[in-house]
Design goal:
Distance between the termini: 17 Å
Bound molecules: flavin-adenine dinucleotide
Structural class: alpha+beta
Number of helices: 7
Order of helices and strands: HEEHEEEEEHEHEEEEEEHEHEEEHE
Largest sheet: 5 strands, antiparallel
CATH architecture of the largest domain: 2-Layer Sandwich
Number of domains: 3
CATH topology of the largest domain: Uridine Diphospho-n-acetylenolpyruvylglucosamine Reductase, domain 3
Number of strands: 19
Radius of gyration: 20 Å
Helix content: 25-40%
Length: about 300
């Protein structure tokens, strides 16, 4: 049982904002799902530790959210507390070619900072609409670059609420997977090492990258980006298109006509609509092509 007045008092002491009965659809790019019992906007690693200690001691269920761009919250909501790593925890520091970001920093802001200093290495990641914490958790990547190409170290809170450092060698980064994916740990900062370059060339590459996204992806609709992981030996969008599934829908969820790899919310989609559509897609693609598709977004329930 959550004692909301006690939790609110703790948030006040830590200077963290708390929203009781918070609708999660306002915090995820898919714009769907139910409410959580409370959403707390984390403002420092120390606050995160204090909150975690409290939640763990009380046996209170909790979850972590960055920009919510790879999350599908269940329609029935989340019966616990969501710790939001967003704009209240988004400081960037730069030293030489090293850029250190608090976990809630938008990847796009980190890319712009790097560009302004003429640093190259992150331009292909520009346009991934997540935080650096979420991007490291997922080892996000695009157009041949991944977080693992630029990250050197990170700070995180482990299962016992200790603040720890980890270097790239121990992060187990592979396709959409990291050390953090299998553990009850929270990333608090990410350090990336870039290379000296030309600010204009970096800017041009970022603009080109964004142009490719807006011409190929249905950015005008809420979604979680690519709905399925890339199967070994093919591409989810190619297989879905090949099966003639563009435009297929369940309730307000639809396979985008523009990019078959995206399931979009056409207005009033529920999480169940998306999951039913995805399970139909998986079945049809398996029957027609033999490939097994796997959901990429994380289901929050
Ligand atoms: C239009 C669109 C395009 C996209 N394009 C791409 C793309 O090109 N490449 C790509 O890889 N992805 C892409 N994505 C997916 C998504 O943007 C990335 O996976 C992104 O890295 C998720 O970051 P986030 O902050 O939104 O994380 P969330 O969606 O908030 O969270 C994702 C997971 O990470 C965990 N998490 C978040 N922050 C932390 C933290 N600080 N500590 C521990 N765990 C944490 C959450 O608990 C959750 O399990 C796209 C999404 C959209 C909507």
């Amino acid at each position: 049982m959550i004692n909301l007045s006690e939790l609110t008092a703790l948030c006040e002491k830590l200077g963290c904002k708390i929203i009781p009965e918070c609708p999660l659809k306002e915090y995820v790019t898919f714009r769907l799902g139910g409410s959580c019992r409370a959403l707390i906007s984390v403002n420092s690693a120390v606050s995160a530790v204090e909150l975690l200690k409290y939640l763990k001691a009380g046996g209170i269920k909790y979850g972590v959210l960055g920009r919510g761009s790879n999350v599908l919250p269940a329609d029935e909501g989340f019966d616990g507390v969501i710790l939001l790593f967003g704009s209240d925890f988004s400081n960037i520091t730069m030293e030489g070619t090293t850029i250190k970001c608090q976990a809630g920093t938008l990847l796009a802001s980190a890319c712009v900072h790097a560009q302004q200093r003429g640093l190259t290495g992150m331009e292909n990641l520009f346009g991934i609409p997540g935080t650096v914490g979420g991007a490291l958790y997922m080892n996000a990547g695009a157009y041949g670059s991944e977080m693992k190409d630029v990250v050197v170290s990170a700070q995180y809170i482990d299962e016992n609420c200790n603040i720890c450092d980890i270097s790239i060698e121990d992060m187990e980064l592979s396709y959409r997977h990291s050390f953090f994916s299998d553990r009850d740990c929270i990333i608090t900062s990410v350090t990336m090492k870039l290379t000296e370059g030309d600010p204009d060339a970096v800017k041009a590459a970022m603009t080109e990258c964004m142009g490719k996204r807006s011409s190929k992806q249905p950015l005008e609709y809420p979604s979680a980006g690519s709905t399925f992981k890339r199967p070994e030996g093919s591409y989810a969008s190619k297989l879905i298109d090949q099966c003639g599934l563009k435009g297929m829908s369940r309730g307000g969820a639809q396979v985008s006509e523009k990019h078959a790899g995206f399931v979009i919310n056409t207005g009033d989609a529920t999480c169940s609509d998306v999951l039913e559509l995805c399970s139909d897609i998986i079945k049809i693609v398996k029957e027609k092509t033999g490939y097994t598709l796997e959901l990429e977004p994380v289901i929050l329930k």
